[in-house]
Amino acid sequence: MNGVSLSRWTMSYFTAALLALLGTEVLMVAGFGFPSHGIQAPETLVLVHLVAVGWLSILMCGALNQFVPVLVARPLVHPELPVVALALLISGLACLLVGFLRMAGYPVGALPWLPLGAVGLTAGFALTIWNLGRTMWTARPIGLPAWFVVAGLVSLAGVISLGTIFSLALGGWTTNSTLMRLTSAGIPFHAALGLGGWLTFTAMGVSYRLLAMFMLAPEEEHRTSRIALLTGSASILVLLVGGPLCLLILERSATHPLVISLALATVSLAFYGYDIIRLYRTRRRQRIELNARMAAWALGGLGLATILLLVVTISGEIDRRIGAVAFLLAFGWLTGLGLAKLYKIVAFLTWLECYGELLGRRPTPRVQDLVDEPRALPWFWLYFGCVGAASIAALLDGSLAFQIAALGMLVATAAICKQFISIRTLGSVPASMLPDDAVARLRLFLPILQQSRR
Questions:
Q1: Cα separation, 408 vs 390, whole angstroms
Q2: How far apart are CA 94 and CA 91, in angstroms?
Q3: For residue 300, what are the contacts with CB-CB under 8 A and spacing of at least 6?
Q4: Averaged over 393-405, what is the pLDDT?
């Protein structure tokens, strides 16, 4: 870890994120939201924000709090801020979801839920951007993976700016004609910046380092990587500048910026895919661990989602099929990658917490000894298989089939979470290699207290 200390609240972020994922899947099984409801229905907005903010964004923030210091070989400038940001994100998300439920007609009280949610989320994300941004600023010059994170954080700033405007407009706190026009026509930019710029582009940057580190592959910067960074950043810039320019100043359709951004993003993803294939081929670790194998399936989901997005855009079916495309991106690519890498990251962090100080003093297990791959593998296969079935059902407007596939996703996710708990409690470690501090092994998601070990 280059001497960088552990982020104490990372496991708390991961736990909150996984609970949001399980909650999302429960709602999908119950037929709440897409595809049983329209893509812009309040019920669907609950699902979208529970998975995009509650699961993916909180997961990403927790991962960045730990791995940005690794990318730049500097500790977080403000190590005390992550817990404050997490509390704000959870409370803001809760208010936002209640606001959407109110829009759907549920009796949830008369508080201004949407504006309150926007305040909490904006504050939480702003603290995260400030902390990570300052950390990278102090480490100048930074490497290529960190520049992907910078572009992702810029995209996140655009997401929360648009989201705040939408919340104020929908909550009745503003009737400004410019903001109302942006609210009515700016949702595609909000979604593209969120799923594409913030989540996908940041995941690309982090995966360059994590895949290389965990597969022992060369971490050299190539021209293809720089092209992926430049074209992807240009795609984000087009969304940030071109969208508002067309909607507010030129008062024209925003189709052209979206198409240009999609073209640039496709080029970026193509070069990124080429780089990742090279990492797999040049790895020094001959046996590919489960996390890397499942990450490959997630990358396949990204490729399929990109092709599907291009097809429905060219065929003019984008309005009807965008829900299925977004589902495949969120669950086939981002969630698949998140669960796969968590399987390694949870073991890696647990090993550092329990055995890092014991290395060289007594026999310790390997990181890989903390996991049980044969037991976890079938659940990952079930998850990806059910995501594929649910994607097809969403494309064909099959609500019942989608709910059945979502049930399979829920069962698989719960079983994978059980594997995470086993890792955190050292369930696969021989008794002779268990650390002396039994209390540390019981802290599933709270920070382990720093204690001296003899």
A1: 10
A2: 5
A3: none
A4: 95
